[in-house]
Design brief:
alpha/beta, 4-stranded mixed beta sheet, binds alpha-D-ribofuranose, 9-stranded mixed beta sheet, single chain
Length: about 300
């Protein structure tokens, strides 16, 4: 299964801290910091590779040390990096992540830098490799996201979209032939005005999102509650699996990648959602973005150890 991801690549500067300083306060933490490869697109492209797909990544990084580190990681993981541009005059994207030790919740500021330099020609060449599906998010220029979606639709390549980060100004009504659209709770609220706090609100939000994007499937990520799957006017909550949370960074990117890959394999969205919940659970159990993404064997072991029947 060949999946083309057209999206962002960042180096994440992760600060693990006990508390957030107030405005004007200097707080000396006993936490730690690290640099971990991240970026919503790269996290998903890596998740595809680790879960057994043939992963092609179209993106842009700077000609700098962070760019070198990211590309060598992708190569080691078997990702096709032929369509990643190296920019002379723009640095690699950077995300500053503040991770609260207690709650495992994060706050992220993204400096897109080279991510805004992805060119249409790169996208065309990557699509010429005839992938089985195209995967996108909204962390790059919206004209490239729209261009990719329209080109993929022209070529009848199925389109899978993770809604993060929410971009309310994106021309969703121009989209065609989208198979999956998947926001998290925050993105759902920004895009629909509905916070998916219970089953009825999930149905209302999914109806709106499905009308807005004309996607065949809408899956709302509900964090610790699992996810809500909506297909053909029918909705269902698929509960998460309990796990000790260490860091939620990249959990959504990994979840949507797992959902996409498993759906492409089995064409059953319930089964795909159960598989994706396992991918998400394993991702939150470890620190960092790329460092927390599970392999296919780890997901299979989790499913079997927990006695989960994903076909049920
Ligand atoms: O979704 C998590 C990602 O968001 C991080 O890896 C960071 O780079 C930002 O893009």
């Amino acid at each position: 299964m060949k999946i083309l991801t057209v999206s962002s690549a960042n180096m994440d500067f992760v600060m693990q801290t006990g508390k957030m300083p107030a405005s004007g306060e200097t707080y000396i933490t006993d936490g730690s910091y690290s640099y971990v490869p991240g970026g919503k697109g790269a996290n998903s492209a890596l998740a595809f590779a680790r879960l057994g797909a043939d992963s092609v990544f179209c993106s842009a990084v700077g000609k700098d040390a962070n760019g070198d580190a990211l590309i060598s990681l992708y190569e080691r993981e078997g990702i096709d990096v032929s369509f990643i541009k190296r920019c002379e005059d723009t640095p690699t994207g950077l995300a500053a992540i503040i991770l609260e030790k207690e709650s495992a919740a994060n706050r992220i500021i993204v400096f897109p830098a080279a991510n805004h330099r992805i060119a249409k020609e790169q996208v065309i060449s990557a699509l010429d490799t005839e992938p089985d599906a195209v995967f996108m998010q909204f962390e790059i220029n919206s004209d490239i996201t729209l261009f990719t979606a329209l080109e993929a639709a022209k070529r009848n390549i199925p389109i899978f979209m993770d809604a993060g980060p929410a971009d309310p100004s994106f021309p969703y009504s121009s989209l065609e032939k989208v198979t999956l659209f998947s926001p998290n709770e925050t993105e759902c609220e920004i895009l629909t005005g509905i916070s998916p706090d219970n089953f009825d609100l999930c149905v209302k939000a999914a109806e709106k999102l499905s009308e807005m994007t004309r996607a065949k499937l809408v899956v709302i990520k509900l964090g610790g509650r699992g996810c809500f799957v909506y297909e053909n006017g029918h909705g269902e909550e698929i509960p998460s699996y309990p796990i000790k949370k260490v860091d939620t960074t990249a959990a959504g990117d990994a979840f949507t990648a797992g959902l996409t890959l498993e759906y492409l394999r089995c064409k059953n969205i319930r089964r795909a959602a159960k598989y994706a919940n396992a991918v998400g659970a394993l991702t939150v159990s470890k620190l960092g973005a790329s460092s927390s993404l599970p392999t296919a064997d780890e997901v299979d072991a989790f499913i079997s150890e927990r006695g989960i029947d994903i076909n049920e």
